[in-house]
From TrEMBL:
UniProt GO cellular component terms: mitochondrial membrane; NADH dehydrogenase complex
Protein name: NADH-ubiquinone oxidoreductase chain 3
Keyword line: Electron transport, Membrane, Mitochondrion, NAD, Respiratory chain, Translocase, Transmembrane, Transmembrane helix, Transport, Ubiquinone
Transmembrane residue ranges: 6-25, 55-75, 81-100
This protein's encoding gene: ND3
Compartments where found: Membrane; Mitochondrion membrane
Amino acid sequence: MFLFILMMVFMLMILVMMLFMLISYKKMVDFENSSSYECGFTINSGARMMFSYRFFLISILFLIFDVEIVLMLPIPFLEELTSMLMFYLFMFVLVSGLIYEYNYGSLEW
């Protein structure tokens, strides 16, 4: 029974895909419509530009440490010993990761 239902779902999926391919129409690609819009001016370069891998890596590190600060804000209001131990463990992992990134040379611009 399960195999029958699985085959029916698969056949229905293929039927829907074929129906969409028949219904969809192909339009002529126009350069004006497919280019990026810059306030009525003609564009000087493409919409997709290269960016630095270092910039991407530093922005990811910034997001990680930004989330770290958000997670550390309620720590002073907790008075349990286990929460403080978890805080120190959390800080140890993040600082060791930061030291690793520094030694690896990822933080150099």
